[in-house]
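ARCHIVE CARD
Drawer: 12
Card no.: 0347
Subject: one protein chain, sequence and derived structure
Cross-reference: see card 0346
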Amino acid sequence: MVLKDRLFTNVEHVRRGLADNSACGICSHNFEYALHAIRDCNAAKVIVAQMYTDGAVKAESSLATAGGVMRDRRGKWILGFNRYLGICSVLEAELWAIFNGLAPLLNLGHDKVLINTDNMEAAWAI
C-alpha cells in the first residue's frame, strides 16, 4: 500500500479535498505522509492494534449493518466481523461498528487501539 501510495493519510485527505489539516492526528507532526504513519511516528509505535470500521444503512428501509477489520501495527490481520443491526440511523450503525470491534480486541488483550472511521459525527461522539 505504501509503495503504491494508497495509504489514506491526512496528506492524502487534504490532496483529495476531504480535509484541511495534513498534520498527524497522533503526534501532531506537520505532515502525515505514509512513511511517517508506518515508520516515523513515535507516538504510533505504542499502538498495539488498528481498527477499521464502517456502518451502513439502506435508505429505503433503514436496515443497517456494521462491520470492520482489525490489524496489528504491522498491518497483519487480527480479526474481522460483520453484524446485522436491524433498523437504526447512520450514526447508530457507525457507533455499533466501533463498539462491536472494540469488545473482541479488548478481550484479546489489545488495550491501545487506533480507531479508523469515516464518520466524523461518530468520532466526535466517542
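Annotation on reverse: Strands lie at 49-57, 63-72, 77-87, 113-116. The first strand starts at residue 49 and ends at 57.
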